[in-house]
Each structure stands twice: as C-alpha cells, then as structure tokens.
Amino acid sequence: MSKAIWEAFSDTFGYNVCHFDGSYLELPGMNEDIELYSYQRNAIAHGLSKKNLLLSHSVGSGKTWVYSAIAYECVRLGLSKRVLFVVPNNTLEQAYEAFLTLYPGAREDTFLITPKKEFAKAVRQDTLKRISEGEASFIFMAYSSFDMLKMSKLYQLKKLDDEITVLRHEIAESKSRTLTRMLQTQLDKVEKKLEKLEEKYEDDTDICFDSLGVDFICVDEAHNYKNISINFNYDNIVGLNKKGSKKADDLMDKVLFVRERGGRIVMATGTPLTNSLSDLYVFQRYLQSDDMKLSKIFHFNDWVNAFAEPVTEFAVDVDSVHGKFQTRFSRFHNLPELMAIGSEIIDFHQTKVGDDEDITLPRFEGYSDILIKKTKSQTAYMDNIVKRTEAIRLRKVTRDEDNLLLITIQGRMAAVDTRLLQNDLRDISSEDKLGGRKIQACAKEMAEVYYKYPGTTQIAFSDIGTPKEDFNVYDELKKELIKRGVKEEDVKYIHEADTEAKRAKIEADFNKGKLRILIGSTMKLGTGTNVQDRLIAIHHLDVPWKPADMVQREGRIIRQGNMNEKVFIYRYITEKSFDAYSYQILQVKQRFISQFLMGHVGEVGRSEAEIGDAVLNYAEIKALALGNGSVKERIETEILLSKARTNQIKKAEELLKLSEEVEEIPDKINKLRFRKNRAVSDGNFYRRNRRQLDKLTRYRLGAEAIRMMRESDHLEYNKYVMIYMGFRIFIPISMRVEAPYLIVNSHAGSIYNVDMKDVWDKPMGVCMRIDNLLNSLSDLPGEIESDIARLYAELEHAKTVLAQGNPYDNVVIELHQKLEELDKRSQYEM
Fold it and tell me: Which of 97, 302, 354, 613 is a good FRET partner for 368, with 20 to 30 A between their CA atoms?
C-alpha cells in the first residue's frame, strides 16, 4: 500500500527543482558597455527556456534589464513577434529608456504609448490601429492604458461557454457534496453572465486586445495584479476574498488568450507575496495553470489541501488593547514539492552583500526605533476606540453606524496625529491641541541627519495624511523641519509632480543633492523610483499594510548605486497606540512570506512554520507599542518562544550532524590507517627503487609525456605512459588539455595525482614534479597520523555534545506552557 501511495504521489508531484545557466548567452545587439551579473544571465536563460516566467528578483536588482533582454532575444530569435510591456504609470518612460539603454539600436522598433498623449480618448482608436497594423515589435504601455483594453465580445462568449463545459464536467466527476455545491453555485453565476451577454450582444466596433497581434506580455511590478477572483470553500478565514478586482481578472483573460495561442508571459516583481498566502496560487494560475491541472491543484481548495493549512492564533484586536483568536492560512507544508513545481516558472534572486560577484550595497546596521509617548488626545481617542469596539462586539450599533474597518482606519490615523481626525473626534474632549509628537520626533531626527551629513538626501514615508487643504502630515512635517533650520527649497513632496516631466526633474535634483528631503507615500515614491544615489536615511512615519510595502520603501535605500557607505532607517512608534495592531498585521503576513523565501533559497524542509528575522522584528515593535500588560506579556512570550524554536531547530540539526559524524568517524579512521600502511609501503618501495637519471633521459621521458598528454583529450580509458622509479604513470580518462595532470600508481594500489599545468614547454619539469611527489611519500604517514588524531578529538567532542542533548528543548516546553496559560487567561478575560 505504501508503495502505491508513493507512486501516486510521485506521478502527481514528481517535479525536479529547475536551475538555469546563462553563461553561454552571447546577447547580440546589447550595449557593449553593460555587463550583466550572472544571476541576470541565468534568469534570461530561464525566460528563453520557459514560455512563462515570474521574475522574482529583489528590489533594485535590475529586473528591467532582465525582462528587456528576454523580450529582445525572443523577437531576435523569431520566438515572438510583438511584445507588450505593461508598466506602472510613474515608471513608464523610465522602463522605456532602460530598454533603449540596453539595446540602443532598437529605437526604431519600439512604440511608447503615454496615457495623456497616445491614449487620450480622442486618439485612442488611432493608436490601437497603429499598433495592430504597424511593424513595431516592442510596445510600452502604462497600467492605466492597458486596463482600458478589453477583450472582444466574441472572445468573452467563447470563454463563458468553455467555463460552463468545464464546470459541468467537474460537477459530474465530483465525489464531494461540498465541492459539488460550490461548483454548482459557480455554474449558476457563469450561466447567468452568459445569458446577460447574449441578450446585449453587438459586434465590436472598437479595436480590442485580441486584435493587436500581441504574443508576449511582460508585466512589471506584477503584484499589483494579484487580486484575481478565487473560488474556495472555507469559512471565517482571514485574508481571503472570493471577488477579485476587475483589472486583475481582465489581465487573466489577456494572459490566457496569449498562452492559448502559444505566446509568452513574463511577470516581474520584487515582492511576489504581498498580502495573502493566496498570492503564490495566483501567480501559478497566471503562469502554470496547465501543470496545476495535471497535478490536481488547479482549484484553490485542492491547492490549500496540498500545500497549506489553517492555523488559529492569538491576535491583538483592532482596539490595540484586547486580544482575540483568528484563523488564517499561515503555514506551508509539502514545501519541496511546492518549490519544485514553482521553480518551473519562478526565477528567484535576493541581492545581498557577499555574493560571488561585485555587488555593492550600503551598510545597514539595524533600525532606529523611536518610541513616542501618547498625547492626551491620543490617549482619549484610544479609550474611545476600546468602547466603540466593545459596542460593535455586543452588536449595540449597526454597521452603518460604526464598524471595525472604520475603527482600523481612524486608529491608524490617530497613531500618527489626532489632528487628522478633528472632524470626527465624536465626544472626545482633548486637553492638548498640540498632537504631532510623532511628526516632531521625525523632524528632529531628519534635521540632525541633514546637518550631520551634508550633500546627502532623506525620504519620509507616510501613506496617512497626504497633502490637502486641511491639516495634513506633509505640511506639518515641512513646517517642523523649517523650524529647525532646514531650507524650505530643500524639501519637496513627490505629490507635487503631477506630470512625468516634473517627476523626472524632482528625481534628478534629488539624486544630484540639489533637493535634500522628499516626502511621499509608498504608492508614489516607494515603487519603481531610482532615487538612491545620495540617500542616507528613510523615515517610516506610519506603518504600511503589507510587508511588501515595507520592502518597496526600504528598497529605495538598500540598493546598488547608493554612494553612501552606511545608511539609516528610522521607525516611529506611538506607544500604546494602533501601531501595535498595524505591526501585528505585518507580522502575520511576513510569516508565510519568510517561509516561502526560506524554502526557495535554502534547504527545503517538508513543513515550515518558523518565523524569519523580519517577523520577529515586527513582533518586537508590536510589543513596544502595546499598552495592555497581559497582552504585551503574551506577545513578548511569543517572541521568546519563536526565537527558542529557531534555536532548537538549529541545535537539532547540529546534533543530527554530530550523530552522523559519530557513526562515520570510525570508518574514516580505519580508511586512514589503511592508507597510512600503504603510504609506508610506497615510501619503502621508492627508497629501494630510486636511481639517478641523466638529464637527457629525464628530458626524453618528459617530452614523451607531454606529447601523449597533448594527444589524449577525451580518452575512453586511462592511458599508460611509462614506468618511473618502479611506479606506473598514466594519463587519466578525466584529463582535459586545459587542465592536464598525470596519475602515479604504486605497487600497493595507491593512486596519486600530479598537476602538469604550465609544463607544456618544460619536459624537465614533468620529471621534477613526479620526483617532488615521490620524495614527499616519507612525510605522508606522519600527516595521515595527524589526521587520525584530529578525528579522534572530533569524535570525543561530538560524544560530549550529544550527551548534553538539546538545551533549547526545555526552554521551548516552558515557554509553550506559559503561552498556553496566558491564552487561557486571555480567553477568560475576553
């Protein structure tokens, strides 16, 4: 039975991890002054070998050049005819120029479509006609333009009809009542949608996407299109939505259209998992749906059953004081199979200092966390949030009157500055009108860096309180900076750039140091911008919703091309405020992201639930911000338990390795003793057979060996050369002329290698190197004896360490028991 199960499992998930080598690529047409890194060349090879690719390279690693090269090579080789690059609006021209920098001769074969010019309503159809009838192979289009492109009504009818056929087949094959009900509900929706479309059907007059001749779509920052509609059969699971966004569902249609016709898809992002475990499933649906069907993981329910599991965990409630238990998918299992299947379409790379290549990143020595005491107004507001949350829990108010989403939004605003909520303070009477301690703290730190490091630049990030006529964070921060002597002309908002030309000027001035401080949001400043040249510090005034947003923000500074040797990142946390809840959201989401990245870059375990450094870091900040003592104790205990479990696993791996060594060392010692005996015999044999050879003889022997080595590349067996001092000399089967060597066989059966590199024109050198080896035989027994003594010492050390056991086992048990006690207490209190 076990054999049958294993065979069925292998048939379904029998994938090997894919690796690609791009060292052979010649890349004709590419700018000769540009030298790509090996990981970029490997990714290009991956993109050429596979029709669908998720380019998951870290922020700032040069993804634009990689996908540009893949596209150019596909067109040059005749694999594709027309490539459509879909790029965020704010980086459209930047991506276009990057392509032309890499391939300066391709300008005549490109077409840049700007939203306000080529895609304005009055000329849009003319532009689409130019594409469909034109010769351009490379089309660059902004998100906003691409999202307006629709599929033809004829395509939509066929798609719905195909969906109905598939759903009816799946219902007929289904053996699960639950799955059948879910499929039937989906079928009813699709049938109604088809009926509605047929009733209003008219032939298309506008040019649609499927008429443009595109056979290669490349989507940059592809995580922006992850929110596709997903059907699943789980209740009360946090972080999942059945209804996706229109733009993501439309992209899925366009991707499937291109794939069905044998086209290619490349999706690039530095943050493949941004918000939910389902993000990985989404990318597989975009790029790997055929394999998913073969492996029976196409439906989300099946995918979850294979690779994930729901986990119920303690969580800080939105009032940042109380706690509750939530269920979400936050643990991976069957990671080797998930990574192997994913490696078909995912090219993963994390740029870091210490790579084999000369990749230079600025030194970052950890975060500067600035803990800020609450103002009286913030204290009053948080007290009010506790009351409002309780009223919602007890259903004393309707959703229209108050709800947790509204509390979440307002709580995040209050953690920054309650003056953002002056129009919605309800019955709160605040004694202090100052607020703004977080803004003041940020201004203080920015001013100190401004004076201490002249010629450098800084960024302050805030997604809350963006510029408007009423009170806002940006104007207040600027006012506080000016108070501290920062020149007004040195401070700009990225929001001031309402055109691409203005944005380009701001970025250029910032990189030159003409502008010293930029204030912006994640969306406008944290994605796709190259402003790293002089950037020495960034400041997080608020907490973004997603770990990916934090990665994008910090990707502006920890980036190649930054001229500073050292950089700083400041985080501002209002104690006992909503910052605790916000950092908890990052903690939970970062957990499964860390598991995915650890599984992809390291040795994959079958199940991963450990928390990576980023998760622990977020958890520690969350503990800083919490006000409720028991909740804070619970979080701090969880942090200690997570660290102890990590140490426990590391120690267990170390002990397992030592246990294997204890078993292997005796065999190694026996082999060394046998080798020592042969070395003694070889030394004695050499002393008996050693004789003097005249120079001519030595020259002739060396010259003959060189001749034979030159003629002996790719042998089918070891080739005999001569007898020398009683030892037989051979040219080995594995020898190559670029790395020549000989092997010396002794009467006792020993084999010694002799390097012959750099002796092609030195026949005397051949004999000299063999002599050196034979003369060293007398020292070999002593060297082997030293190795034996070292192994005995290692064996004793390993036995001592194993006898001590894993010191973290008891720590984990104690902390786990404490956590259970705290959870019982929390449930009682709730």
Answer: 354
Q: How far apart are CA 535 and CA 562, in angstroms?
A: 7
769 contacts 752 by C-beta, under 8 angstroms: no
The pLDDT of residue 203 is 63
Find, among 298, 223, 70, the residue nearest to 593 by Cα.
223
For 669, counting Cβ atoms within 10 Å of its Cβ (0-12 exposed, 13-18 middle, 19+ buried), the class is middle
Question: Three-state SS for 461?
Answer: strand
Picking from 764, 775, 686, the residue whose alpha carbon sits closest to that of residue 726 is 686
The CA distance from 312 to 327, in Å, is 4
406-415, 424-433, 720-729: range with lowest mean pLDDT? 424-433
- The DSSP symbol for 736 reads B
- Distance of alpha carbon 658 from alpha carbon 29, whole angstroms: 54
Q: Per-residue b/e over 11-36, b at no fewer than 16 CB within 10 Å?
A: eebebeebebebeebebeebeeeeeb
Give whole-number Cα distances, 763 to 696, 732, 760, 768, 791, in Å.
Answer: 10, 19, 7, 9, 40
Distance CA 571, CA 368 (A): 6
Share of the chain above pLDDT 90, in %: 42
Instruction: Give the pLDDT confidence of 225-273 residue by residue, as tens digits.
Output: 988 888 776 655 555 667 788 999 999 999 999 999 999 999 999 888 7
Overall average pLDDT of the 351-366 stretch: 66
- What is the C-alpha to C-alpha distance for residues 246 and 97, in angstroms, rounded to an integer? 30
Facing residues of 142 across strands?
87
In this structure, which amino acid lies at residue 282?
Answer: V
Q: What is the DSSP string of 663-678?
A: HHHHHHHHHHHHHHHH
> What are the CA-CA distances from residue 299 to residues 54, 168, 187, 231 (Å)?
20, 15, 14, 8
632-638: list long-range contacts, CB under 8 Å, 24+ apart.
633/822, 634/314, 634/323, 634/819, 634/822, 634/823, 634/826, 635/316, 637/815, 637/818, 637/819, 637/822, 638/314, 638/819
Residue among 747, 736, 601 at smallest CA distance from 684? 747
Residues 221/268, Cβ–Cβ less than 8 Å: yes
Q: Which helix (H) or strand (E) holds 520?
A: strand 517-520
pLDDT-derived band at 727 (thresholds 50, 70, 90) equals very high
Beta strands 110-113 and 83-87, pairing class? unpaired
* pLDDT score, position 382: 82
Strand bridging mode 264-268 / 52-57: parallel
Which pair of tokens denotes residue 579? 């910052």
Grouping H, G, I as helix, E, B as strand and the rest as coil, residue 501 is helix
DSSP state of 739: B
Backbone angles phi, psi at 84, to 5 degrees: -110, 110
Residue 794 three-state SS: helix
Q: What is the mean pLDDT of residues 794-805?
A: 91
Nearest to 618 by CA among 672, 554, 683: 554
Q: What integer is the mean pLDDT of 182-193?
A: 83
Per-residue pLDDT at 358 exceeds 80: no
Token output for 327: 């269920």
Cα torsion 336, 340, 341, 343: sign: positive
Q: Which two tokens stand for residue 315?
A: 């969580």
Residues contacting residue 793 through CB under 8 Å, at least 6 positions apart: none
Q: What is the DSSP letter of 384?
A: H
